[in-house]
Amino acid sequence: KTHADVARVLSLPKKSKDRMKMLTKLRNKGNHSHNSEVLASGIGSLKLRRTAKTNYEGRDYIHCMYCQALYLRRDLWRHVRKCSSKPVEANSEVGRKKVLSLASMNESAQCQQISPGVWKILTGMKDDEISSTVRSDLSILQLAQSFFNKHGQDPTKYDYIHQRLRECGRLLLMLRKDFSIHTFEDAVRPANFDVVISAVKKVSGYDEEKHCYHTPSLALKLGHSLQKVNDILHCRALMTQHSTLIKSTQSFKTLFAKKCSELLSHTALTTLNEQHFNKPSTLPFTEDVQRLHRHLEKKTELALKELKEHSSPKSYSELCKATMANVILCNRRRGGEISKMTLNGFQERDTSPLHKDVAFGLTKFELHLCQHFSRVELRGNKGRKVVVLFSPDMVNNITLLMEKREDCGVMAENLFLFARPHCLTPFRGQDCLRLYASECGAENPELLRSTQLRKHVATLSQILNLKNHELDQVANFLGHDIRVHREYYRLPEATTQLAKISKLLIAMEKGSLKSFQGKTLEEIEIEGNAFILCSMKELDLFLANVEKRITLG
DNA sequence: TTTCTCCTGCGTCCGTCCCG
DNA sequence: CGGGACGGACGCAGGAGAAA
Predict the structure, then answer these.
(1) Fewer CB within a 10 Å sphere, N or C end of chain A?
(2) From CA A40, how far away is CA A30, in angstroms rounded?
(3) Which residue blocks in A392-467 are alpha helix, DSSP H?
(4) PANTHER family given for it (predicted)?
(5) Are the beta carbons of A294 and A535 closer than 8 angstroms?
(6) Is the CB of A429 under 7 A from strand B?
(7) CA–C1' span, A341 to C17, in Å?
(8) Cα A297–A453–A528 angle (5° rounding)?
(9) Average pLDDT over residues A457-469
(10) Which nt is closest to the CA of A271, judged by C1'?
(11) Residues of chain A with CATH 1.10.443
(12) Which residues 378-417 of A interface with strand C at a CB distance below 7 A?
């Protein structure tokens, strides 16, 4: 405690509120330094804000990041909510605040040369033994920094970064616990090479007798991460002219290159291959797909009504998830891609009407389909164009969702179209799909996953015996890599794709694919008796119209 | 072929709600 | 404040596909 602080407190009028507050703060500060010592040395007794009935271990406690008082980890959030020392601006944000990670970030003062962005990513991690290990090791922090430099601008990659860091954290934890190697600097010493390898094996659950891994993929990933950490250490050593470390990292690199496949990857790959064997491949029944569709219909309608009447984060989430599942189902897209859709991407969608020359080449039916669906183009994985089709219903729902964002506690910084209230992440597509799949009463809900659905489309298109270039269109829409030859198409890619694929999708939704067997896309028209299932009212009306026109010639 | 990055399905644990 | 109940957010394992 500095004398200046004490003097300032004493100068305040006795029994004044400010004086009391300052005193508490000072006392907490003192307790904090005392407690830190106790925790570090493991001896002495902790000064608690409150004494508890049950006996907790030292590690069950954590200091509040605002007032420095010591609380049970479990209950810290409760205190923080009302902590008097909390700055006012911290109050403004609602919902999950990651109190625990914030607090323990505060405990480890390791944040010197690490950029604020990395700090932010680290805060997002679940607070546990692993993440505190990550925070405590400079090498891992630098690894985090390097990931951040590479991916930092893209919040969708934070999850991936978390995962890589945690893997390293787990390895380091193992090294510390069972092999008394405390940093990666120690780990790369040639003398420790074998030890590190056995640590990797141990983390991945290697069985010496059976020569197989419990989690073979982890062994492979750790191998990669180790090399990366080694590179980072090498650079650091070069910069600081640390000659022993330079030598260590160099030898580690060669050792690893030569020995890795023999010691790690070979067995890991064998294990993976063995597991891959004997795995039944299954596709969802068309009937189940239809069930899911009907269920989503119902849910969407309910949620829509609910949200219109009273907007709350809950009703918002409900509609958001239902709509999202709908989009995934109708487009047969990967959940991940839909999750990453941004608000901007949707708002900037192409709403321009069809070009006349283009329209000329299409049948009436196809023309209507073009007007029916909205088309949003997204940046795919590797900059590849990804197309998502929206029915008017979906557009309506999403428009409502966008209007209600603020009301329902969606943060302004959240860039995603399907944003979660109170945090910066989007809903996860696969989670939504799974939720509704299990609710809808399908016979095999576990087959109603986006991968399976994609396969479903692929298989069914083969049944349809499409011409080669038509298959290309389907494949392209599903995002598979195919060599698309532009000369196949008489019309610009966008239009043909939109018209024909939506035709196919509608047919599948209606469960009337069978009647199309052997027809080419050109020949496919939706027939009157194809309305086995009417999912979208509007679509039905529209289709009825089309039907009339077709029969009228 | 190896390495890297991203995606998916599932289980679990944590935050929140609510009551005493 | 203590503690039980519940549902959703997040981590983990592993697969897929592209780049090197």
Answers:
(1) C
(2) 16
(3) 392-404, 429-439, 450-463
(4) SET DOMAIN-CONTAINING PROTEIN-RELATED, SI:DKEY-51D8.9
(5) yes
(6) yes
(7) 21
(8) 55
(9) 50
(10) C14
(11) 286-552
(12) 381-382
Length of chain A: 553
Flag whether pLDDT at A151 surpasses 50: yes
* pTM given for the model: 0.59
For the domain made up of A286-552, give the CATH fold: hpI Integrase; Chain A (1.10.443)
Q: Both tokens of residue A129? A: 């033994």
If you compute the radius of gyration of chain A from its CA atoms, what whole number of angstroms results? 30
Mean pLDDT of A399-408: 76
Look-up of token digits 């679509």? A539
Q: Which residues pair with A207 in a beta bridge?
A: A212
Three-point CA angle A105, A109, A114, nearest 5°: 85
What CA–CA distance (Å, rounded) separates A551 from A553? Answer: 5
Å separating the CA of residue A210 from the C1' of nucleotide C13: 20
* Of A221 and A546, more confident: A221
- Report the run of H or E that residue A369 belongs to, with start and end: helix A364-372
Say which nucleotide is closest to residue A127, CA to C1' distance: B14
Q: Is the CB of A420 under 7 A from strand C?
A: yes
> Which chain C positions have some atom within 7 A of a protein CB?
1-3, 9-19
d(CA A90, CA A84): 12
Q: In this predicted structure, what is the pLDDT of residue A160?
A: 79
- Residue–nucleotide distance: A97 CA to B14 C1' (Å): 12
Nearest residue: Cα versus C1' of C14:
A217
Nucleotide with smallest C1' distance to residue A96 CA: B15
